[in-house]
Description:
Elements: H1 7-12, H2 16-29, E1 35-43, E2 52-57, E3 61-62, E4 68-69, E5 74-78, E6 82-84, E7 87-89, E8 98-103, H3 109-114, E9 131-135, E10 145-149, E11 152-156, E12 187-188, E13 191-192
Antiparallel strand pairs: 1-2, 1-8, 2-5, 3-4, 6-7, 8-9, 10-11, 12-13
Amino acid sequence: MTEQVTLQDIFSRQTDAGAVHSLVKSAISELGTSVLVQVQAVHGNGATITGKVDVQPMVHQQDGQGKPLPHGVIYGVPYLRVQGGASALIIDPIVGDIGYIVIAGRDMQNVVQTRQPASPASFRMHSMSDCVYVGGFLNDAPTQYVMMNGDGMRIVSPNPVTINAKSVQVNCDVAVQGKITASGDVVAGSISLQNHTHSGVQTGSGSTGKPQ
């Protein structure tokens, strides 16, 4: 009866094919892939140049016996900001956030430092030292958010909301639950709240006319 030999049998034996397989497998293990990480520190945030984070890979390495070996912290990783020109949506990471790092094929430190096209800083390839952080995975439920779906759009915040703009135009009916405070005049049609007058004023118990 002819012995059936599988690829696993060939690769596990001391053969040329097995040796090649081991080399290929070793080379593949050196390639940088997307890695799940947790933010340990944030450097620079708010309305400034996009900052960087220090991150800790969350999936451990293993030795030959399967013993877990935690990765070290990766420092100074640029993080993603949704931005086009001078317009941006700023939601900076905070410590404890979970996200991914995307690892570059070559040493990108010269580009990170100058923000200009440049040659690789070294012959390093597929290293965790050359990565960017993309956040927003496996995190807690938000308490402050903008939600958009088929039912419309909601803006929810437990804190004050500030709008700094040259002007705001609202093209819809507005319903307000709560008081409205204005530091300047309020004009309805052509009638000023601060400077309007009343017609038909008489002394005694009579009522005034409408503002004019």
